[in-house]
Design a protein that fits this description.
The protein has a domain of about 150 residues: Glutaredoxin. The N and C termini lie far apart (about 160 Å). It is built from 8 helices and 7 strands; from the N terminus they run H-H-H-E-E-E-H-H-E-H-E-H-E-E-H. By secondary structure, the chain is of the alpha/beta class. The relative contact order is 0.15.
């Protein structure tokens, strides 16, 4: 009996709970910002947009600004270099911009300039099409639609940005530069079917101004001759 009593009065150690050991281990403390963090990759669109930004900043051109001295060289559809600062040194220039070559709206705009091309050349103006497309694509478009003027390729958007026509997407527009390179008119945005008509109107207005100035000079000369 003594042994049984002793066994009953013996202290029984409680069993260790298994609940604690079954809990998940605490998460490791996050590392300081930037430490060991993974670099987020650019999406394809972000990469494309960054590639399209101009390599150098050019002051934006406005009416009254001049192309003369502008240090931008772009290839035409044949890969031949064209110096933008000199394209209007001998003749006036109409420069129209399209968002993308060989698309419906851009083709309508380009073909309208094609059909009225003689009117521009007779007025003393050369025509250029400007886009961010590569020369090869422009060349195929030129041949496909029998476009008689040069197409300028500006994938880095250096000149497009200088004209204020967009850093990631080209705004459909046109710009008229008088002989010597001074900008006398710009339309942005413009409808594909209206672009060539508005450009011709600007040329006619500029021609009338020149004729008026010549007449005024002649009148002054005649007055001087009469008083001599």
């Amino acid at each position: 009996m003594a042994r049984k009593a002793a066994a009953e009065t013996a202290t029984i150690e409680p069993r260790r709970s298994t609940r604690i050991s079954s809990q998940p281990a605490p998460k490791a403390k996050r590392k300081a910002d930037g430490e060991g963090s993974r670099v987020k990759k650019k999406t394809k669109k972000e990469a494309d947009d960054s590639d399209e930004l101009p390599q150098e900043t050019v002051e934006q051109l406005q009416i009254g600004s001049s192309l003369a001295g502008l240090s931008i060289t772009l290839p035409n559809q044949n890969g031949e270099d064209v110096e933008i600062g000199t394209i209007a040194s001998e003749r006036g220039v109409v420069l129209f911009l399209v968002p993308r070559a060989d698309t419906p709206g851009c083709t309508q705009q380009a073909c309208a300039y094609r059909d009225a091309y003689d009117k521009f050349t007779e007025a003393g103006y050369d025509v250029y099409c400007l886009s961010a497309d590569e020369p090869g694509k422009q060349g195929k478009w030129k041949d496909k639609k029998s476009l008689p003027y040069n197409l300028l390729s500006d994938p880095k958007r250096a000149f497009i940005s200088a004209l204020g026509a967009g850093t990631t997407k080209t705004s459909r527009s046109h710009f008229v530069f008088a002989k010597g390179g001074v900008m006398v008119d710009k339309r942005m945005p413009v409808k594909p079917a209206d672009s060539f008509k508005l450009a011709l109107e600007a040329i006619h207005k500029e021609s009338e101004k020149d004729e008026g100035g010549d007449k005024e000079e002649e009148d002054k000369k005649d007055e001087g001759d009469d008083g001599a």
